[in-house]
Design goal:
Helix content is about 70%, strand content about 5%. With about 450 residues, the chain is mostly helical. Helix 23 packs across helix 24.
Length: about 450
């Protein structure tokens, strides 16, 4: 008999397991991969999503939130969690005392950063700043008495505001700090802090600007902000990212696959989309031994095995998995819609005479819906097909591919694999070229 006892708060925070509505969602849950690599503030939205999946928030999720945030300065919220856990209307003295300490530090930071904050909000001062940080600091020191410790105070204040859960203020302060600071390590840390703060305020346009600055990717904006999906596919298909996925985090393939599939309705450049799709199929096939879930298995069933029944079954499982994934839940319907189009396109490409009822069944539609679907598909994709309403069939005309086109496609695939292999082996090749006498 299956043990349905809910996991402990520690187990949830360690990413070990959690209860979810369906077995398939729990089986392919990626929280164990994600939580250990996230800042505690970025973990909190995942716990909120988890409590939403379970309906009424479980006691263990509430305890997990408390354990997660008790080291922060979000004193009022942490106190309310303690009251909920202990079913008490009283607030312990330790929370009252910590709240007073936080307010005192907040007042102190505000006073100590007042001068520099006013200067950076003064247009006459800002207009005199240049791209040279050293010159800017010298100008502010000579004209306004600003010192390096005063600039560093912006960094400390920004971190304090972030710990308090005041993410908009934290982003503002950290941005001000990195404009002036010549400390590269702190400036880099401030950039990452501002990125996290912007994510938590769901300011997706600004988040994408920060992503481009730090030259890294994050899953938070890509499925909440449609314009970001082109960026994630470009990043993930670049040789450095493909190499990272293959060696360290093959589970990222779920998000790459979801981005490519859902991009179908957004991408007007059919040639570029087909290339992305082929690259995705190639990576999924290569990494199948390392990672698979219903999303990647749908790709394999449709484009590697050409098993339409298995593809339809995996699509149903993939829909459940996506709805239980924090990052992909909002795109589940778009994924299913786009996947049905891909099933239809593939089915029409390899069959000359298609029974509408059979194809409708494979798509999970009734015959009338199936007819409308196929008519729209032929119109949208400009496939050469004729619908015979009397016979209930579609006749497809498949022109033979040029041998030259086949050679071009194979060459593209070889170039992609060579680029990934070269990226992976470059450190070893450089070492091999070093003369023995220099070692």
């Amino acid at each position: 008999m299956t043990d349905n006892k809910p996991p402990s708060a520690d187990a949830i925070l360690n990413g070990e397991s959690h209860a979810t509505p369906t077995g398939i969602t729990q089986q392919y849950d990626l929280l164990p991969k994600l939580i250990p690599n996230l800042d505690r503030h970025l973990t909190f939205p995942l716990l909120e999503f988890l409590s939403g999946l379970e309906g009424d928030e479980s006691a263990e999720v509430t305890k997990a939130k408390y354990e997660l945030l008790k080291q922060t300065n979000m004193t009022d919220y942490v106190a309310s969690l303690w009251q909920e856990i202990n079913d008490s209307d009283e607030v312990p003295e330790e929370f009252v005392r910590k709240r007073e300490e936080v307010l005192q530090r907040l007042s102190l930071f505000t006073e100590e950063t007042k001068q520099i904050d006013e200067l950076l909000n003064d247009e006459s001062v800002v207009s005199n700043l240049r791209s040279d940080k050293v010159a800017n600091l010298k100008f502010l020191e000579q004209q306004h008495g600003v010192t390096v410790p005063m600039v560093d105070m912006l960094y400390d204040y920004g971190r304090f505001q972030y710990s308090c859960g005041s993410y908009a203020n934290a982003a503002h302060l950290l941005d001000q700090f990195r404009i002036l600071s010549t400390d590269n390590d702190k400036a880099s840390s401030a950039s990452w802090g501002k990125l996290a703060a912007d994510i938590l305020t769901t300011n997706w346009e600004v988040v994408m600007e920060e992503v481009n600055k730090v030259k890294e990717t994050t899953l938070f904006p890509f499925f909440n902000y449609e314009a970001a999906r082109d960026t994630i596919t470009e990043m993930f298909f670049s040789p450095p990212f493909i190499n990272t996925i293959q060696t360290n985090c093959p589970w990222i393939l779920r998000y790459l696959a979801a981005a490519v599939i859902t991009n179908r309705s957004r991408t007007r450049n059919t040639g570029a989309y087909q290339k992305q799709l082929k690259d995705l199929v190639r990576v999924v096939r290569q990494e199948g031994y390392e990672y698979n879930d219903p999303v990647t298995e749908f790709i394999k069933a449709l484009y590697v095995d050409f098993d339409f029944e298995e593809a339809q079954r995996k699509l149903g499982e993939a829909e459940e998995v996506l709805k239980g994934d924090f990052f992909l839940s909002s795109t589940a319907d778009a994924f299913v819609e786009a996947a049905r189009h891909l099933i239809s396109e593939s089915y029409c490409k390899i069959h000359q005479r298609i029974d509408i009822r059979d194809l409708s069944t494979r798509l999970g539609l009734n015959q009338d819906e199936g007819e409308k679907w196929i008519v729209n598909l032929i119109r949208d994709t400009r496939m050469d097909g004729k619908l015979d309403y009397k016979e209930g069939t579609v006749l497809m005309n498949h022109p033979a591919n040029s041998v030259y086109q086949q050679v071009i496609e194979r060459t593209k695939g070889s170039f992609f694999r060579t680029s990934v292999l070269r990226q992976a082996l470059s450190p070893f090749l450089i070492f091999a070229l070093v003369p023995v006498a220099n070692l």
